[in-house]
Structure formats: C-alpha cells, structure tokens
Fold this protein.
Amino acid sequence: MDNASRGKKGEEQAASALETAGMTIIARNYRKKFGEIDLIALDNETVVFVEVKTWSTFGIENLQYSLNAGKQQKIIKTAKYFLLENRKYSNMAIRFDVVFVGNNAIKHLASAFMESV
C-alpha cells in the first residue's frame, strides 16, 4: 500500500475512533495554501483540530519528529483561518490533538500541543 492510501485509511480509522468516542467530524482534509488539517471535530463545546499520523515503524515516542514546531505552527495558522471562515465556531474553546494509527492500534493524544505565546 502506498503512503497516500495508507494515510487515507488511517484518517478513516481515526475519524471512526473519534466518532465512537462521541465527537462529531465537521471537516476532513481542510486545506489552505499554508497548511492542512486532517480532521476537525466537535467535542461537546470544543473545536478539535486533529493531525493524524499513520505509521507502521514509528510510535508515540517519535511525536517530536513527526510534528515539529514548524508543522504545529502551520496547523495553528490553518485552524485560525478555519475559525475566520466558520464564525459559528469562533467563540468555542479549541484544542489540538494527534491521533496515531498503526499496527492495528489507535492512540489519541488530546491537547497534544498548543500555541505558544
């Protein structure tokens, strides 16, 4: 399976896991010229921006390699743009999560990172 197919399958598995946990997926593969967010979900009154990592060889301990500060800033900037375009969510709390999918396991890290001031 190529990387694109593996990534798409991982995103489907992550979305399913989040929905099972009670979240509602409101957007998938939200793209702007400066970044992309794999999944955007509602968790009660919180908008959750989710990065999905589908790996077969790396684990959760490698988060810092897969989601460095530059990637985090792109996600944050893209999230801000989503909130500007979708004003109905702009007064809600936000959170940045990561979902690891691999080796028949799914690991959800809520509040994996935040915007630094």
Q: What stands out?
A: The beta strands are 24-32, 35-43, 46-54, 93-102, 105-113. The radius of gyration is 14 Å.
